[in-house]
Write a structure and sequence with these properties.
heterodimer; A: about 160 residues; alpha+beta; Heat Shock Protein 90; five-stranded antiparallel sheet; globular; B: about 110 residues; alpha/beta; five-stranded mixed sheet; 4 helices; 5 strands
Chain lengths: ~160, ~110
């Protein structure tokens, strides 16, 4: 009988923008277990980068706080929860609209949620003003098992 | 980021070599604005050939430089967009505003 592949990880770091690269590269290394394509991995990295930037710039408004990432892998799906204990979002529907930003003076494009939505399969935003925001997003990685078996056979024949 | 100014063409080329996110755009922005003001070019090109990662911070950064270029009377273009950079720019619609340059190598021997 084939076991269902499952894995989980947790990551916490302080809200410094220099940690954005650390967060997306770490998540990408974790997701690599599902053998994603370069494009799938780039999409996930971008979505993570947007989510973490939101926590740092909007959630904590550049004050110090903790950003948490919980990652699950289940069969061929990645589920990521990214949360902060920052100021929260008053109206999530408005915040998710393309080009909407509360900080245009900082050259923010207002595309963060739009990118997360279109680069991932699902996006869910839970937010309580004064307590923080948690986003949950998931993406299915297309399996490539057949190719792997072929490769293996070729190697053993040699 | 590397930059080069072609005096005869009044062309200023920025070749971005970092990953573009909220953290790195602060440096890119400062240096690009400083050099645009210093050289007063007629044409500014951002080269994305070596960009391995970009998120939405890149959109804000380019729009900001586009506005700054307008103020000093220069035209801003982007060039050598990688697949992922193109995907994000297309999503934001800024390519309707900012042209993609194809011919900077002909215009000047870039890098």
């Amino acid at each position: 009988m084939k076991d269902i592949f499952e894995n989980e990880m947790k990551l916490e770091f302080i809200s410094k923008s220099s940690n954005e690269a650390f967060a997306r590269v770490t998540v990408a290394a974790f997701v690599a277990q599902l053998d994603p394509t370069i494009e799938e991995l780039a999409d996930i990295k971008t979505a993570v980068s947007e989510a973490v930037t939101n926590c740092i710039i909007h959630g904590y408004e550049n004050k110090q706080g903790i950003v948490k990432i919980v990652g699950h892998l289940k069969e061929n799906e990645v589920i990521l929860e990214i949360s902060d204990n920052g100021k929260g979002i008053e109206n999530v529907d408005i915040a998710k609209e393309p080009l909407y930003t509360t900080k245009p003076n900082l050259e923010r494009s207002g595309m963060g949620f739009t990118i997360m939505e279109s680069f991932m399969d699902t996006l869910d935003v839970e937010s309580i003003v004064g307590l923080g925001t948690k986003i949950t997003m998931s993406k299915r990685i297309k399996p490539k098992i057949e190719n792997e078996e072929n490769e293996f056979q070729m190697i053993t024949k040699d | 980021m590397e930059s080069k100014f072609y005096e005869e063409d009044k062309l200023l080329v920025f070749k971005i070599t970092d990953e573009i996110d909220d953290c790195s755009v602060q440096k890119i922005r400062r240096r690009a604005d400083y050099e645009m003001e210093r050289y007063m070019p007629k044409r500014v090109v951002f080269d994305f050939d070596s960009v391995t990662f970009m998120d939405s911070a890149g959109i804000g950064m380019i729009i900001g430089r586009y506005k700054f270029a307008n103020i000093i009377g220069a035209k801003l273009e982007v060039s050598k967009l990688t697949q992922s950079v193109k995907k994000i720019f297309e999503m934001s619609g800024i390519l309707k505003l900012i042209p993609v340059a194809h011919d900077i190598e002909q215009d000047a021997r870039v890098f």
